Amino acid sequence: MPEESLVDVSAEAEAVQDQSILETHLPKVDARFLSVLITGQPGVGKTVLACSICEFPEALPVLVLDCDGGLMSVRDKPLAVHTMTQTSALDKVIWAYKKGKAPWGTVILDSLTAYYLMLLEEIGRKRGGQRDEPNQLQDYQRALIIARRQIRQLVACPCHVMVLALEYTQQDDLTSTIRTGPAVPGKFAYEVAKYFDVHGNLVVSMKGKDRSRVLTVQPSRRFQAKDRTGLFEDEIVSPNMSHIVAEYIGKLNPQKEK
Hints:
The protein has helices spanning 7-15, 19-24, 46-51, 88-98, 112-127, 137-155, 188-191, 241-252, 254-257, and strands at residues 35-40, 62-66, 79-83, 106-110, 160-171, 178-182, 198-207, 210-216, 226-227, 235-237. By secondary structure, the chain is α/β, with parallel strands linked by helices. It is globular, with a radius of gyration of 18 Å.
């Protein structure tokens, strides 16, 4: 997998520091493209699922913004990988789409959890905090503002967008009900899904000796999930992102599907 440099598309983005300038260039979401948030425990196959979009030719080329360093399982895929060391890489990608210079058909952020931790660390450093010093309340408030803008703008880019996140579990003390959602701090854990067409929770299901992956895309007492497209049942067994995107595009272009 080649390392993707963002230098060629980032010169103007580097100069844009004012959020209001970026907001004025915010495009409308293009219905031709699908945005998917995938949550799940480590090792269930979130990255493999997202990168299976490589099997859909119209979604190529695929750019992976790698915050986790966990791409060993997809090393044979035709991916362009940019190792994220700064969250400003997202603004560079967004700016490239706004200027019509982005070559990618799909962008994958792996993962939202690692991105948010990176963002908090950057904000703490800019405030003058030490490397291992706990973040302060204003750091979390600032991170929420930036994350809202960057993720909303990424989803609005004219491409397919796949964002992966670790899953948190929380047990209600009164009902003992266990709820899951994306593992990011505070309010963002509850609101980030609203930016996406599909929010699925990926688990590994065992039936006897048979092992399969299941993507839950409808909300329940346990899972935060949604399917804005209206295409899918509660669960997708052995999901493949190329099939999911193809089905979505087929719905938009029924004549083409025939």
